[in-house]
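Field log, afternoon session.

UNIT: design team B
ACTIVITY: writing a sequence onto a fixed backbone
BACKBONE:
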């Protein structure tokens, strides 16, 4: 939307293709409402519409609307589909009932499909802003306990300090230097086995396990260990990957940035518009 705004200000005809019913990306669908009000996004959309930007909502670029066709129609295409696929843990028990990923958990909460977690012990695996949000949401949904399990030290945790402090203040517990090894249960979860990790001298160096195990009871496990691009945007076209697209296509936002933050997405959109101007 920032790229669209910059281009529309210059008098370009801009169309936004958005697969969801509403525009706004992660800020609309994933950031918990108690932390981020949506009225700023709505104002931005109203301003864009006033400037003539067309919103094609519920329109997924992919099988039905191939990227190739869109490229033919426009002088430049800024591709910013974000990264909405969760990274998997790849451990035993990940398929058990009660294990879920940050994507479905936060989406359900933010779209009002709230489920009560009353009396449940929740473990969130991860250490970024997404993990903090999941742990805080679990408490708001009535969880008996909500614990963050992070495989490195507190100092190495990537979450914004103010967000981890807010989570702690609300009652989220933190376990550092623990790597999940196995989720226990039969049909339902009963707990998680962690292996303690050793502090490495190298900041964010490779993880070394100590051999010491720790077993914690849990009714729910939420996995929030990272995000991956969803390549459905390439379906229906001949392009094989996001790295080899025609010069008219400029990647922007999370998909193009190593640090996946709002500030970086905005800077990336500005750089993409610069490149589009030169086409
Ligand atoms: C829970 C959570 C908390 C966060 N907290 C913070 C924070 O506190 N501070 C911070 O700076 N950052 C935070 N972030 C990160 C921030 O939200 C992202 O970096 C930013 O939203 C990325 O913007 P984007 O435009 O690249 O992608 P997105 O916001 O993901 O938008 C991509 C859009 O493309 C659409 N799309 C995808 N595929 C298609 C397709 N094939 N066809 C049509 N449309 C498609 C999607 O529906 C979406 O609307 C957080 C992220 C999460 C998940």
């Amino acid at each position: 939307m920032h790229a669209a705004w910059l281009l529309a200000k210059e008098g370009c005809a801009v169309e936004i293709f958005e697969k969801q019913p509403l525009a706004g990306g992660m800020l609309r669908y994933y950031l918990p409402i108690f932390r981020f009000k949506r009225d700023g996004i709505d104002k931005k959309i109203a301003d864009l519409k006033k400037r003539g930007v067309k919103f094609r909502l519920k329109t997924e670029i992919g099988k039905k609307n191939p990227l190739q066709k869109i490229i033919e129609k426009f002088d430049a295409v800024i591709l910013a589909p974000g990264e909405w696929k969760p990274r998997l843990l790849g451990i035993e028990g990940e398929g058990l009932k009660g294990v879920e990923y940050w994507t479905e958990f936060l989406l359900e909460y933010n779209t009002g499909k709230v489920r009560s977690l009353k009396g449940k012990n929740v473990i969130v695996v991860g250490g970024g802003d997404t993990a903090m949000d999941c742990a805080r949401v679990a408490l708001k949904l009535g969880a008996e306990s909500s614990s963050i399990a992070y495989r490195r030290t507190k100092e190495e945790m990537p979450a914004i300090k103010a967000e981890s402090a807010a989570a702690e203040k609300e009652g989220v517990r933190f376990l550092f230097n623990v790597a999940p090894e196995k989720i226990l249960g039969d049909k339902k979860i009963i707990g998680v086995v962690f292996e303690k990790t050793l502090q490495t001298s190298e900041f964010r160096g490779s993880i070394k396990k100590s051999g010491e195990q720790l077993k914690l009871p849990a009714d729910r496990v939420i996995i929030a260990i990272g995000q991956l691009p969803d390549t459905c945007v390439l379906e229906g076209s001949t392009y094989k990957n996001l790295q080899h697209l025609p010069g008219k296509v400029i990647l922007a936002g999370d998909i193009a940035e190593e640090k996946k933050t709002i500030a970086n997405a905005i800077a990336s959109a500005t750089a993409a518009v610069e490149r589009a101007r030169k086409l």
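LOG NOTE: Residues 17-20, 25-27, 30-31, 60-62, 80-82, 106, 129-130, 133, 160, 232-233, 253-254, 260-263, 265 surround flavin-adenine dinucleotide (CB under 6 Å).
NEXT ACTIVITY: expression trials, pending approval
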